[in-house]
Design a protein that fits this description.
Blueprint lengths: L1 E3 H7 L5 E6 L12 E4 L2 E10 L4 E15 L6 E15 L7 E3 L4 E3 L1 H11 L22 H7 L3 H4 L1
Parallel strand pairs: 6-7
Antiparallel strand pairs: 1-8, 2-4, 3-5, 4-5, 5-6
Amino acid sequence: MKWTIHELMKKVHSDNEVYETFDLRPYLSEDFNDLADILPTSVSGYFDYIKDEEVFAFYLHIKTTLKMLCSISLEEVIVPLDFHSELYFSETKEDDDIHLIDGITIDLKPYIFSEIITEKPMRVVSENAYENYEEEIEELNEEEIVEDSPFAKLKK
């Protein structure tokens, strides 16, 4: 999913369709503590060059499956994702919706991974998360409440 600008300009009128399946596991890191794994991702769609604005536009359909950790039991939960996305790139235009082209190539993989992270649910709960769940409620007396208050020092 990486092309030079010259390749894209050649392909824009004849071969502008995108069909590829690839692995995005290299983009996983410890920063994504609820995301255990990402299965192969398939991307289909097409791209266009908007001449007036000097922008490459990619219209993509992204399908993947995530393995996320349940927020209660930490069991793995399968989360299928299937969504459409539009990505815009330009050498000169700087906008919130337009990515600047770094050098002479466009690599879609990091942007697709970013779109997946945006689309994933904030938290998931497995079907049997509450089977062995016990909630412990600790009650504090008035003195403990005052001592633990971050505003206790302000009273003095």
